[in-house]
Amino acid sequence: MPFSRQQRVDDQTLREYLFGLLPQEQTEQMDEWSVADDEFAARLDTFESDMVDAYVRGELSGDTLAKFQTVYLSSPRRRQKVAFAEGFYALEAAQPAPPAVVKGGRTSLFGPGFGLFALPRLAWAGGLAMLLAIGALLVDNLHLRDSMHQVANDRAAFEQREHDLQARLQNEDASNARTASELEQVRKSLAQLENSSAAKRVASQLSSLPISAVAFVLAPQMRGGAQMPSLILPQGTTRVDLRLELEGNDFPTYRIALKGLQDDKVLWHSGPLKAVTKNESSTLSTIMPANLLRQQMYQLDLTGTQPSGQAELVSSYVFRVVTP
Amino acid sequence: MAKERLSRDPSTSPGAFRQFLHWLDDGTDSRGEKYLEMRRRLVAYFDRKNCVAPDDLADETLNRVARRLEEEAGAITGTAPAQYCYITAKFVFLEYLREGARSQTSLSEMSPGEADAVLGAASVAYVEVQSKERLSACLEDCLARLAPADRDLILDYYQGEQRSKIEGRRVLATRLHLSVNALSIKACRIRNKLEMCVRERSGQA
Fold first, then answer.
1. pLDDT digits (tens, 9 = 90+) for A260-272
2. Closest CA to A273 of A297, A298, A303
3. In a domain, B105, yes or no
4. Does residue B122 lie in a domain region?
5. Is residue A322 within a helix (H) or strand (E), and if so which, with residue range?
6. How far is the C-alpha of A109 from the C-alpha of A192, rounded, in Å?
7. pLDDT block averages, 10 residues each, chain A of length 324
8. Residues of B whose CB is below 8 A from A307
9. B47: domain range?
10. Both B150 and B67 in a single domain?
11. Residue B69 shares a structural domain with residue B151
């Protein structure tokens, strides 16, 4: 069923569209709007940015997280979006205080002349970028986690106090100097707290960044039973950089599906892939999430897709996962 | 920032390109912003279709539209500019699908971006760290290039976490006399600009 333009497309549908899960007719409809409809294009943009931010902040979970990792991150351009969001988040984390707004006018921490204070503000970001490089050393520091917990509690208390004072200022006479002064003091405390916790927050984010990959090359399966290839997955591996060697390259695109050998259930599939031919041998490469794999036997089904869209099973690759 | 990215196909004359920008603007003068926005949408469209080089296909689409407009003496009637761009993009995509020869391209003949797209492989950890450092430097630079009002808005918009962020956005929207929805669209546009700038400066566009 195509969508009607009047019907508001909900978040779930947008998510399915970005993950390539919608039926073709609906996908085409949204393709068109994404280019030709200003309102829809803006909404899709906002939704996509929010989803990327949620991933960077570790707020995605379950099936959405799995789809994000396996489908959304399969494109270099989209990985760049994630990298941008990570950089931007690190910068945002370095902001010493939320925007300070008082009745009757705005008082930003950096004042209206941001340019005058840009260097120290951005130098913070530079310092944090260096922390990003060395922060892995801090990730498992239990003491740091305890401190973070304490900081979070303190911040929540300050924010609540700030909110209360702000509400009181709005309800009372703006000249209530005592309340305004207390509000200013709470904001200063919040700023100090943010300063001390910003670097720690960035280091903490590092613990959720996927950085461990294992490369795995599979040759076409021969009759007569050569030894079953084994994929050794060290603890903490987050992705498998998979390369399949092909017997030939007869299709414009291919798809790979991962199945458990015992139950034949599809656990994951790639997007459309193009084979690369070099020196008369063709290979397909993709990334597979490691968290799907347990110590057991699996099968990868390779399907070729004709230009007409017709799919055909090309080959199967069986392998065993070993977790040391 | 807009001027830096306006690139004309050599086969299109400067006059025809100006005519194309004017047609895309549809009666207003966006100073090339409409062109950049359309290109960004087309790149995202081809990227969602898992095309190997979405930037090239977006440029091919825009060049075709510009050439067609030149042939039609500056007027394509009956279809809005954005709609016409989408229809052309659809044809470019269908041709791309038919073009089996692309799959025969060897890795060594591809640009780094294309090779990465074909391999579908993310960079390894040390490259990621290097990229982060470079990205951070580019981000600082691009932020400094934004108009002060845009810079303040984007930094304020993304400040805070969860509840405090939502409250912060509400306050920001009130201060700027915008609805929260309009604010989010405005922030997203600035973010897109920033993102394009970072891509250019880090040589990833």
1. 877 778 888 887 7
2. A303
3. no
4. no
5. strand A311-322
6. 12
7. 60 93 92 93 92 87 87 87 82 52 32 32 39 32 41 56 64 59 65 50 42 76 64 80 86 87 80 79 83 86 84 86 81
8. 97-98, 100
9. 7-100
10. no
11. no
- The answer to whether A274 faces chain B, any CB pair under 8 Å, is yes
Check B136 against A132: CB less than 8 A apart.
yes
Give B5-70 as a DSSP string. Answer: H----TTS-HHHHHHHHHHHHTTS--TTHHHHHHHHHHHHHHHHTT-S-HHHHHHHHHHHHHHHHH
Average pLDDT of the residues in B39-58: 92
Instruction: Please indicate, yes or no, if residue B2 is contained in any of the structural domains.
Output: no
CA A5 to chain centre: 30
What residues pair up with A277 in beta bridges, in sequence order?
Answer: A282
| Contact yes or no for A132 and B133 at CB 8 A | yes
The predicted-structure confidence for B133-166, as pLDDT tens digits, reads as follows: 677 778 888 888 888 889 888 888 887 766 777 8
The residue of chain B with its CA nearest to that of A41 is: B41
B24 and B90 housed in the same domain:
yes
Are residues B18 and B93 both part of a single domain? yes
Structural domain total, chain B:
2
A45 touches chain B (CB under 8 A): yes
Give pTM, 2 decimals.
0.52
According to the model, what pLDDT value does residue A97 have? 46
Mean per-residue pLDDT, B89-101: 83
Q: Is B182 within a domain?
A: yes
Taking the C-alpha atoms of residue B161 and residue B159, their distance in angstroms, rounded to an integer, is 7
Report residue A314 CA to chain centroid gap: 32
Q: Which residues make Cβ contacts (< 8 Å) with residue B167, sequence separation at least 6?
A: A163, B160
- Amino acid of residue A110: F
Q: Does residue B95 share a domain with residue B175?
A: no
Q: Name chain B contacts of A37, Cβ cutoff 8 Å.
A: 82
Residue the block writes with tokens 């208390």: A157
